[in-house]
Amino acid sequence: MRASLLQMRVDGSESAEERRVRASALVRQQAGADLVVLPELWTTGAFAFEEFDAHAEPLRGPTHEAMARAAREAGVWLHAGSVPERAEDGTLYNTALVFAPTGELAASYRKIHRFGFDKGEAVLMGAGGDLVTVELPETTLGLATCYDLRFPELFRGLVDARAQTLVVPAGWPERRRAHWTLLARARAVENQCFVLACGTAGTHAGVPQAGHSIVVDPWGEVLAEAGADEEVLTVEFDPARTVADTREKFPVLRDRLLGLPKPPRPAV
Predict the structure, then answer these.
(1) Could you give the CA distance from residue 173 to residue 203 in angstroms, rounded to a whole number?
(2) pLDDT per residue over 217-235, tens digit each?
(3) Mean pLDDT throughout 57-64?
(4) What is the model's pTM?
(5) Structural domain that includes position 221
(6) DSSP structural state of residue 175
(7) What is the CATH number of the domain that holds 213?
(8) Cα(99)–Cα(80) distance, integer angstroms
(9) In which order are the strands placed within the sheet that holds 133-135?
(10) Which residue stretches of the chain are H helix?
(11) Which residues are catalytic?
């Protein structure tokens, strides 16, 4: 499986539409990849809180249209990062979109854990409530977004849903870059999965971004890592075989005692 992580520069020098055009071109350049991943909230910037409302769009809005076309033209599975979605009831969500190579929307995921500590995203956006996986020919993706990376129970749920590859688009700040790398490797090791974590370059509303998109294997080894600037990070790996082999050789997950779904109680 060949995956390309598009670590885009996101700053105030482009409009959202200009960035959609540029993102579409970057996706089309990845023809031949199996999976392409964009960062979190790349149309606005993850820390540009004041822009969320103005740039919010319906699920099948302009970003959906542009990314569906790009996925179809490139013939790739596309995790199109996330967009500020405005639901029918007016609630805003940080929503990830995944497209099949046909351009059809295969899945959407509303970010569960919102960052901000009673401000910013935490108060401006609603919380999602569903774990989401996507079946690809080579692997099962488990979807998470940015701040979700700090909550291991979410990833345990994705593993229970048979995820083998965890995809995490993000707008992670440079000042906490060490946490980004540490948490990505921890989620890979503890769940015996691949982790594909795609961040942004540039500066969002005065907040420098970490960049350093990373691909980690189930043993915690870093297969590839980007620098701080805009970059396309491409890696080839065999997710199904490697995950199965890791779990067979080191069957730690079978020793779980806490957090497992309880069997139904017998009828009386």
Answers:
(1) 9
(2) 999 999 999 999 999 999 9
(3) 98
(4) 0.95
(5) 2-252
(6) G
(7) 3.60.110.10
(8) 7
(9) 133-135, 140-143, 165-169, 194-198, 214-216, 222-225
(10) 16-28, 52-55, 62-74, 121-124, 152-160, 177-191, 239-249
(11) 40, 111, 146
